[in-house]
């Protein structure tokens, strides 16, 4: 029912936006946006196609650093020794490059575990079934819109041990199967490498662990990150 509610709210918002833009174009105003272009030039697209294209652009542009903030939060809550030592042992006094990434398994485990516990979005973009199909033993008729519950998949106790805990070791010590890798969406989080190497993160004295999340276009911490950042005693290794 919640997913249905999301669908109908999204549809109402997008229909209103499309109607407003259509009226602007009809009045002779300048075409100056992605939506304007779709309405004017993409004659073969249906209104449903246009809705999906615009919604996808909105989601992908919203809160692009939300997962980085969550990683910084988790690093402040947990000891960072393993990550720091790994980077120092592999890179030494050199800057981190793409060639180093395959030699930094714990760093990549931090990425995957952060994306698992703190998925940027709780539900994936809707997918449209153009023809009748079978999916996971279920019959999906043509015309159905399908939404993947990313949050539920990443917190499933049948698939993950202690899913509420942030434990990069779950990706470091074993090879997770392909499906679990897909759920965590291994995006590049380049910004994390500098803070992890150049600084020590910790909670302010008396600070308590914060579990609350909230959602707009993306899932993010209900309260802003507060952490004490201490420079490490070495030259910066990240440009």
Automatic annotation (TrEMBL):
Topology term for the membrane: Single-pass membrane protein
GO biological process: ent-kaurene oxidation to kaurenoic acid; gibberellin biosynthetic process
Record-linked SUPFAM superfamilies: Cytochrome P450
Top-level lineage group: Eukaryota
A GO cellular component entry from the record: chloroplast outer membrane
UniProt subcellular location: Membrane
Pfam families according to UniProt: p450
A Gene Ontology molecular function term of the record: ent-kaurene oxidase activity
Keywords from the UniProt entry: Membrane, Transmembrane, Transmembrane helix
Broad class of where this protein is predominantly found: membrane
Family statement: Belongs to the cytochrome P450 family.
PANTHER family according to UniProt: ENT-KAURENE OXIDASE, CHLOROPLASTIC
Protein name per Swiss-Prot or TrEMBL: Ent-kaurene oxidase chloroplastic-like
Organism of this sequence: Prunus yedoensis var. nudiflora
């Amino acid at each position: 029912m919640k997913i249905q509610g999301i669908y109908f709210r999204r549809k109402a918002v997008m229909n209103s936006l499309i109607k407003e833009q259509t009226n602007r174009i009809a009045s002779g105003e300048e075409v100056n946006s992605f939506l304007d272009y779709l309405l004017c030039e993409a004659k073969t697209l249906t209104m449903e196609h246009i809705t999906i294209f615009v919604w996808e652009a909105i989601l992908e542009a919203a809160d692009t650093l939300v997962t980085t903030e969550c990683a910084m939060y988790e690093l402040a809550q947990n000891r960072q020794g393993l990550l720091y030592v790994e980077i120092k042992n592999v890179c030494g006094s050199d800057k981190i490059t793409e060639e180093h990434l395959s030699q930094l398994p714990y760093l990549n485990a931090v990425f995957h575990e952060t994306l698992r516990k703190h998925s940027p979005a709780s539900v994936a973009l809707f997918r449209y079934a153009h023809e009748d199909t079978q999916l996971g033993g279920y019959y999906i008729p043509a015309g159905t819109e399908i939404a993947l519950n990313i949050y539920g998949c990443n917190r499933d106790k049948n698939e993950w041990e202690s899913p509420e805990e942030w434990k990069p070791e779950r990706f470091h010590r074993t090879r997770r199967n392909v499906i679990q890798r897909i759920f965590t969406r291994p995006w590049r989080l380049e910004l994390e490498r500098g803070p992890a190497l150049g600084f020590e993160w910790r909670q302010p004295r008396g600070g308590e662990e914060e579990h609350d999340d909230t959602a707009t276009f993306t899932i993010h911490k209900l309260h802003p990150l507060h952490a004490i950042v201490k420079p490490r005693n070495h030259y910066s290794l990240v440009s």
